[in-house]
């Protein structure tokens, strides 16, 4: 399942959507699909994802690609901050033919939030804690690459719960946090896979995949939520380390619900 975003100023939405909704492949569209050229999304090369060739998010690019090369985000400055966009959901039908659904959304209010920094190498949960207070005999283990960078992180402990059979209390070993890293050939961080125990922290974002550009800045994340999936696009308007905006899309119930925040 692949998704693509096209975001534009609402006053020029019709023109942009009619020109920028190609999927770059032999794809059937369903729902409110709009036929368009294939100039926006990169062409596919067989079934290879080729993540390492994806374009980085940069302010001078009219189209900004996600790391899998299948998702795209276009932006246009507007003082009104009224935005609209499309979500492309890719899947294979019963005939094994690639198809796409499209969901439209609008944004007419951009809020604000604080930037808490890049958490790529934080050995804590997405909630800011390590889980040590929720278990007994808490243990941590970090493995490093040959160049001294984190390769994986594991933490575990003993958790007390009641058995289903008789309700008696017992302690069981649980995995608290897991982190795995993937680096490019030049040593820059490309990908982080995060998981936490849903019983200790909750199910929201119990799994989270993060992608980074060549400078180590987070540019895209996809995480679990009980009713579907959360996707995050980090939008950088300059060469700084802090993104200017965060676009969040919440999937659930057949809808794509957007939220956009400006970082203070």
> In one word, what is the shape?
globular
Mean pLDDT: 74
Strand line-up across the major sheet: 7-16-15-14-13-12-11-10-9-8
- What composes the largest sheet? 10 strands, mixed
Class by alpha and beta content: mainly beta
Unreliable stretches, pLDDT < 50, 5 or more residues? 1-27, 29-65, 74-79
Assess the beta-strand content as a share of residues: over 45%
Distance from first to last alpha carbon: 33 Å
The number of E-state strands comes to 16
Count of helical stretches = 2
The topology string of helices and strands comes to: EHEEEEEEEEEEHEEEEE
Helix percent reads under 10%
What oligomerization state is this entry in?
Answer: single chain
Please give the radius of gyration in angstroms: 21 Å
Structural commentary:
Strand 10 and strand 11 form a beta hairpin. With 264 residues, this protein is mainly β. The strands form three sheets. It has a ten-stranded mixed beta sheet with strand order 7-16-15-14-13-12-11-10-9-8. It contains two helices and 16 strands. Residues 1-27, 29-65 and 74-79 have low confidence and may be disordered. The longest helix is centred in the first third of the chain and has 7 residues, at 13-19. It is globular.
Please give a handful of descriptors for the protein shown.
264 residues, disordered N terminus, mainly beta
What is the element layout, followed by pairings?
Blueprint lengths: L2 E7 L3 H7 L8 E4 L31 E3 L6 E3 L8 E10 L5 E10 L3 E3 L22 E9 L5 E13 L6 E15 L5 E8 L1 H4 L5 E6 L5 E8 L2 E8 L9 E8 L2 E9 L1
């Amino acid at each position: 399942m692949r998704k693509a975003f096209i975001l534009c100023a609402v006053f020029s939405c019709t023109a942009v959507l009619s020109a920028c909704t190609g999927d770059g492949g032999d794809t059937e569209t369903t729902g409110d699909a709009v036929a368009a050229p294939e100039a926006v999304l990169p062409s596919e090369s067989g079934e290879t994802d080729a993540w390492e060739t994806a374009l980085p998010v940069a302010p001078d690019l009219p189209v900004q690609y996600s790391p899998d090369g299948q998702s795209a985000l276009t932006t246009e400055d507007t003082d009104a901050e009224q935005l609209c966009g499309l979500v492309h959901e890719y899947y294979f039908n019963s005939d094994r033919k690639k198809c796409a659904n499209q969901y439209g959304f609008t944004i007419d209010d951009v809020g604000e939030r604080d930037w808490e920094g890049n958490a790529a190498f934080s050995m804590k949960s997405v909630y800011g804690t390590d889980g040590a207070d929720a278990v007994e005999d808490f243990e941590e283990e970090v493995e490093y690459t040959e160049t001294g960078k984190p390769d994986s992180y594991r933490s575990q402990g003993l958790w007390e719960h009641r058995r289903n059979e008789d309700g008696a209390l017992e302690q069981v070993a649980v995995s608290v946090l897991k982190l795995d890293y993937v680096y490019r050939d030049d040593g820059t961080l490309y990908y982080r896979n995060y998981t936490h125990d849903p019983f200790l922290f909750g199910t929201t974002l119990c799994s989270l995949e993060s992608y980074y550009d060549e400078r180590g800045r987070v540019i895209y994340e996809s995480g679990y939520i009980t009713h579907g999936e959360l996707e995050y696009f980090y939008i950088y308007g300059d060469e700084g380390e802090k993104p200017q905006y965060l676009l969040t899309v919440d999937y659930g119930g057949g809808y794509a619900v957007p939220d956009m925040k400006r970082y203070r």
